[in-house]
Design goal:
With 388 residues, the protein is of the alpha/beta class. It is built from 13 helices and 13 strands.
Length: 388
Amino acid sequence: MSVRQNVVANPFADLDITRLRRHTGAKWAVYPDDVLPLWVAEMDADIARPIIDAVQEALELGDTGYPFGPRYAEAVASFASDRWGWSFESDRTANVTDVMTGIREVTRAISDQETPIIITPPVYPPFVGTANTLSRDIVTAPLDAAGRIDPESLEAAFKEATARGHGAVMILSNPHNPTGTVHTREELETVAKLARQYGARVISDEIHSTLVMPTSTFTPYLSVAGSERDFAVVSASKGWNLAGFKAALLIAGADAAEDLKSQAVRGGGHAGHIGIIAHSTAFTQARDWLDAAVAGIDSNRTLLADLLETYLPDAVYQPPEGSYLAWIDCRPLGIGDDPSAVFLEKCRVALNSGSTFGEEGVGFVRLNLATSAAILEEAVQRMGAVRK
C-alpha cells in the first residue's frame, strides 16, 4: 500500500558550509578546509524527517537487537511496484550488509574460483576489487563512445570469459556508475540473452536506481525476459544518503532463489537492525524527500552544463540520466591523465579520478552534484583556474 506523500523543499538549498564541515564522514573529513569536496558518493543534505523519527523511536525503545522478518523486502517491493511497475516475492530475497557484500557473496555462491568476472568499464572500482578479493580473472566489455552497452563488445567478452568451461559472472551497473547512463529495456534484454546463450550469470548493482532523472525511465534488470537465473542488489543508501546505515537487499530471479540458501550468501546477511529500519522507512515513508532530491539534482546537472560552458568550455559533459554523479571528459583541457590531481592542487577542488574506473577513464573526472547550487558554482569557478 502506497503512502501519501507531502511536498518537500529542495534538500540541497541553502546549505551551511560551516555545518557541513562538522561532518566526520569521508566526504568532508578527508581533505583540508580550503578544499571543496565534490568526490565520494555522499549527499550534502539533511536526512528525511521520517527516517530520523523512525531511528529515534527505535533508540528510545531500546529496539537495537538483531533484525527479523521481511520488513526490508516488503518496503522495496512496495516501492518497486509503485514506481517501476515491477513485483517480486520476499521469499526470494536476502538482507545483506551492503551492495558490494551482496555481490561478492552471491558470486562466491554461484561460481568457482576459475569463473571469470565480466565488467563494463569505465565502471565502479569495487567491481575490480571484488574480482581481486575472489582471485578471479577479469574480462572487460567497454562501453561505447556514448557510454552505452556495446552488444558486440559484450558478446566478445562473454565468449572469451566462458571459453574455459567455467561459465562467467557479469557484474552490471544499472544505472551505470560513473557515466550516469540508464540502460534501456532493450539493452538489458541483450545482456540477459547473451548471458543465457553463453551460460553466464548476471548480478545487477541497482544502488542508483532511485535517482533516475525525470527525462529517463529505470528498468529493473530482473524485470526483463531471460533474467530468471540472475540477481539484483538494491539499497536506500544512495537515494536517501544512508551510507552510514549498512543494509542492502539481494533479490534473486525467479529461477535463482535456491542460490540464496548457500552458506556464502547467508554469511553476507549482516545488515543491522537500525539500518533496516532506516532503509525500510526511506522506501515507504520518505518518497517525497527523494522526489525533492531528484528535482534538486536535475537542476544541478543543468547548472553544471552552464557553468562548464562559462569556466571550462573545452570540457566535454553529458548530463547523467541517473544518479548525482557527473562524468566529465577533461582530455581537451590538456592537463594530463589525472585531471583530478590538478584540480585538487591548483584549484582546491576534490573530485574522483577517472583512471580509478579503468583505463577508459583516463583523462576524466567524476563530480558529485548532490550539493547546493552555490557550492557547485564556487567549485567550477575554482576549476576554471586551470586555464590560467
